[in-house]
Design a protein that fits this description.
By secondary structure, the protein is an all-beta fold. It has strands spanning 4-12, 33-42, 47-56, 63-64, 73-74, 82-91, 99-106, 114-115, 128-129, 134-141. The strands form three sheets. A six-stranded antiparallel sheet has the order 1-2-3-6-7-10, with no helix packed on it. Strands 4-5 form a two-stranded antiparallel ribbon. Strand 2 (33-42) and strand 3 form a beta hairpin.
Length: 144
């Protein structure tokens, strides 16, 4: 379709810890699937719009032990997979060749985002919260 671009990228991984005693313990911070996509439309030379999204698979936290692997435990809760959708409109060369304006709605569906806790924030054993839905307006004026 003329003036429409679609881009998609995905990664599947199955990582394993091969250290003796840890072979059956799922790695922390290692989602099986990461994916992103962008759908862009160029209305004319000055106006473009896009929808984009990202998917992050479920993640475990660190398996922590001081002695033998079987006596260890996770430092926090496993986090569910999540998907985020963003929408954006850009005005290029608005009123001047040097002025560009962008209005972006981040996390359109207000998806709850949680990242697994780390050793530096074990108090957040249920995970840390990512950004909620928000809108940003960006103006760029280029000086030549």
């Amino acid at each position: 379709v003329e003036n429409v671009l679609f881009d998609i990228a995905a990664t599947y991984q199955h990582s394993q810890n091969e250290k003796e005693g840890y072979e059956d313990i799922e790695l922390g911070y290692s989602p099986n699937i990461l994916a992103s996509w962008t759908l862009s439309w160029l209305a004319n030379r000055s106006v473009s719009a896009s929808l984009s999204g990202k998917y992050t698979g479920a993640m475990e936290t660190l398996w922590y032990t001081l002695t033998v692997p079987e006596e260890g435990a996770r430092i926090g809760a496993k986090q569910d997979a999540f998907a985020v959708v963003n929408a954006s409109v850009r005005l290029h060369q608005l009123f001047s060749d040097n002025l560009h304006v962008s209005l972006t709605w981040h996390n359109v569906l207000d998806t709850e985002i949680r990242y697994p806790t780390t050793l530096s924030n074990v108090w957040a054993d249920k995970g840390t919260v990512g950004r909620q839905s928000r809108v940003s307006l960006t103006c760029r004026w280029y000086i030549q």
